[in-house]
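MODEL INPUT / OUTPUT PAIR
PAIR INDEX: 1
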Amino acid sequence: MSAFTVAVVRYEEPGRSVRRAVEMCRGLDHLPARTKVFIKPNIVFWTRSVPFPKWGVITTTRVVEDVVLLLKERGIDAVTIGEGTVTMAPGDTETAAHAFETLGYGALTRRYGVKCLNVFERPFAPVDLGDGLKSVSTRMRWKATSSSIFRF
């Protein structure tokens, strides 16, 4: 298994903290311009019933925006923010749309041209995870697998 470099930085200032962490671990150095990137911000659960805590539970929109800005600086315009949010009712697409809008992803779409995707609205495609995981096959949603990188 390959070794990865990790950087831990306290988030103190928009634009600078994420940049520092990414630069310290050279996190985007291998990405060529014009590649496709899929960002999964970890919206594991969302509800429209009560106010939901956003800090310490999910990756904040500020951090996602900082990553989008770093990608744009490198000439990467094909950015998709995607999530498969768990809801109380299977097939509920309104809650995911509510989460995206409440978190400000619509503003990121308008401001930077990123796409937002509820992965449960797309078909599955098989993916071979390769060695290190004993060539186990799993199923990932098509948009993530059509990106040049889909881990962050």
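PAIR INDEX: 2
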Amino acid sequence: MIPKWLVTLPLLLPLGAGAQAITYDFTGYVTSGGPTGATVTGTYTFNYAEANPSQSTGTVGSSNWSSNSFGGPAEMEWSSTPPSGFVFSSTAEVDGIRYATSAFSSYGGGSVIDGWKSGAPSSFAASEIVATSASTFNGSFFNYVAVPGSTPYTSSGLPVFSSRDHNLGAFYTGSSSRELRYTITSLTPAPEVDSGSAAGGLTLLLSGLALVTSGRRSAAHERKRLPD
């Protein structure tokens, strides 16, 4: 009989090349709302497949664009229905404090990514907000303001980091008055799991399982042949 854990194992394999979400790792240091100077680490995830076309403007990566997805009772000016997912989401950890974008409640919320380079200075910003009640919110954001002559994002709408830029990040729980702000000092694409290696590992695992199963069957067969 196939173990139950083996049936669910393929669900744990990484998404293929068609996956839309792209994650970046960042580091920084606290400037306000927490232990000043403490190191912050975390991730930013961009997923343009979750953008609502009717709420968005411009072309991603162009001179002026905005990819939005908002809805729910807390965002009635956009839509009465909470979004299905996030255009932007984040995690952060600093001095034992942990933050992660939470799932939408019935109150809704949303997320947005903006790019601007048709004027000076160019900027790239993203934020997410989740309403936890009619009057309380969790959320996070970052904002890059580039030095003159540079653009803080690619034609695909992904960040181009430079320590010379003004790089601000923040997260809050309950309300924006409980906001922890930090300066971002590095931003790099998160390492990807090699799907080929994962598939190869699964093949070896299945081969090993087959050998074990075969061995058990042979042993059982031999036991049946032994006289009482």
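PAIR 2 NOTE: Residues 195-225 form the longest helix (31 residues).
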